[in-house]
Amino acid sequence: MDQLSKKRRIVEFLKQNKVAVLSTITPDGKPESATVEYVLTDKLEIIFNTFATYRKYRNLKNNASVAIVVGFKDKTVQYEGLAGEAKGKEQEECKKLHASSIKHKTKFHEMPETRYFKVSPKWIRYADYSKKPWELFEILF
C-alpha cells in the first residue's frame, strides 16, 4: 500500500471516532493520560481543548510531546506528535472546527479558561486486528 492510501485509511478511521486517550508528561517526568474529544484536520493534525486549570494543560506547557490512542477493539491508531497551544487567528479556527464537530460542548468554547491545542504528527501506527493476517503499518512524518 502506498503512502497516500495509508494516510487515507488513517484519516477515515480517525474521522469515524471523536474520543482519544491523550498521554502527556508531568514536569517531574511521570506519564499522565486523559480522554479528550478531538477533531482531525486534513493534514492529520489533532485538535482538542482543555482548561488552563487541568493537569494536561500544565504538562503540555512544560513538554509538547504527546502520545494519543484512538480505538480499542478491532482497529486502533497510535499517534505520536508535538502539541502546540493555538493562539490568535489559529485559536479561532480551532474553536470553530471543534465546535462544528463536537456540538454538545459548545458551552465550553466561550469559557475564558478553555484552551485549544493542535497536535502535529511525527509517527502514526494503524492496526486492523479484524483482518487475517492483521493489517499493520506505520507512517513517519
Describe it for me?
The protein has helices at 3-16, 55-62, 88-101, 106-109; strands at 19-25, 31-40, 46-51, 65-70, 75-85, 114-128, 135-140. A six-stranded antiparallel barrel has the order 1-2-3-6-5-4. It is built from four helices and seven strands; from the N terminus they run αβββαββααββ. The longest helix is centred in the N-terminal third of the chain and has 14 residues, at 3-16. The model has no long low-confidence stretch (mean pLDDT 93). Helix content is 28%, strand content 43%. With 141 residues, it is α+β, with helices and mostly antiparallel strands. It has one domain (3-140): Pnp Oxidase, Chain A, CATH 2.30.110.
Salient structural properties:
six-stranded antiparallel barrel, 141 residues, Pnp Oxidase, Chain A, alpha+beta
Indicate the topology.
Layout: H1 3-16, E1 19-25, E2 31-40, E3 46-51, H2 55-62, E4 65-70, E5 75-85, H3 88-101, H4 106-109, E6 114-128, E7 135-140
Antiparallel strand pairs: 1-2, 1-4, 2-3, 3-6, 4-5, 5-6, 6-7
Task: Kindly summarize this structure in a few lines.
Helix content is 28%, strand content 43%. The protein is α+β, with helices and mostly antiparallel strands and 141 residues long.
